[in-house]
Amino acid sequence: MSRAFIKESDDDLELPDRPVSEHPNDVTAEGLAQIETSLAMARQAVAEAQSSGDRSALAQASRDLRYWTARRATAHLVPPTEEKDVVRFGATVTIRRDDGREQTFRIVGEDEADPARGTISHVSPLARAMFGKAAGDVIRIASAEAEILTVA
């Protein structure tokens, strides 16, 4: 009989690991707290899945637990800097794009970045273009330019 028609055992149900960035895992204090919350939630989800016997939920929760354990182990807390003259990790930067739009972003760690909420990852092209620049400097973003208005 062909193996295509044999039901595989669910004993080996395991999801592949979530990819972990090769970039340094720099985090703000808020980002570290988010990682710790996610880690606690993953531990809770594993416990609940184990007690309910739900193999699919256990596979998902175990995957998340491995990811957040790795992220917590590699987290590097970057303390806020008193220097506000140039763009650094943790800075809040306001830019004016070519089309006149003004946008404000805070540069944070990868896991805490959410552009819709005004935070961008320190490894994003926009953040990398801004690092080391000051108010009044013009940066290139893809095929456009933007002026840095403020750094806080």
Terminal CA distance reads 69 Å
Number of strands: 7
Largest sheet: 5 strands, mixed
What structural class do the secondary elements suggest?
A: alpha/beta
Rg from Cα: 21 Å
Q: H/E series, N to C?
A: EHHEEEEHEE
SS element count, helices: 3
Number of domains: 2
Description:
The chain has 152 residues and is an alpha/beta fold. It folds into 2 domains: 11-77, no CATH class; 92-151, Chitinase A, domain 3. The chain contains 3 helices and 7 strands, in the order βααββββαββ. It has a 5-stranded mixed sheet with strand order 5-4-3-7-6. The protein has a two-stranded parallel ribbon with strand order 1-2. The longest helix has 24 residues, at 29-52. 20% of the residues are buried.
Task: List its salient traits.
two-stranded parallel ribbon; five-stranded mixed β-sheet; alpha/beta; Chitinase A, domain 3; 152 residues; 2 domains
Give a nutshell description of this structure.
This protein has 152 residues and is of the alpha/beta class.
